[in-house]
């Protein structure tokens, strides 16, 4: 099953790459099946077995997610957007768009309220499957440490007081109506104006979404009595006044000084745990050093985790003079 998950993940990656490059030929069932070397029937059956959804439904959902952002952010005609994303006509695009999002493309362009987009799924993850690192040669990158001043901003997010770690966070969020991973990430992906948005649409990277940890503004602690509360959300400009999606909350974060602990590009499958340990060691050394600074854990302070293995993994932590 792990081998099948890995092959289906290859198809999932290929779908996003082909949508971005407008390569409709690569998005046909025949082309995707050929990529795996199996029949079209076998490919669709295995995709549903691994992902829990029909391949055609996932493909259309991703097409519409990319198309919605173009409707939201560009002046391209709706017909051109429809044709670029595999729809035969303006009418076919409008029907699919309204059926999925409850609003027509033209109405959404005038009033881009939050909707749930079909985010990219993860079929294969070594760590979720309990496989750990591959154990091959590790990078020798050191942790780069530097300071930045982060302007005042707003943080749109969900938070969990019981979780411990990324996947545990989403497992526990799935128990809360309307706060599961697909819904939260789908809403956040549709929000315009995210400070860290570089056009991606994944939970792990791009799309302007980040994991975060905070000392809760209301003074509550996590289940273990510690001040760290896990969150997932997006940073927005300080003057952002858009509609807050259902079941999400927003807070104002003051400007301040932050220490950055950054590891460069790395192989996710080979060394994610190692990179995490390196960063944690660097942060512990900073905390214990007599360097004139200390981590600021006051209520309302937020630690951000940026995770994109092709570029970096970095923690941005608020600090103050000791």
Automatic annotation (TrEMBL):
Q: Which keywords does the record carry?
A: DNA-binding, Transcription, Transcription regulation
Check the record and name the SMART domains matching this protein. HTH_ARAC
Supply the InterPro entries for this chain.
Homeodomain-like_sf, HTH_AraC, HTH_AraC-typ_CS, MarA-like, Tscrpt_reg_AraC-type_HTH
Q: Where is the signal peptide?
A: none
GO MF annotations, alphabetized: DNA-binding transcription factor activity; sequence-specific DNA binding
Top-rank taxon = Bacteria
**Residues annotated as domain HTH araC/xylS-type:** 9-111
Q: Which PANTHER family match?
A: RIGHT ORIGIN-BINDING PROTEIN
Q: What is this protein called?
A: AraC family transcriptional regulator
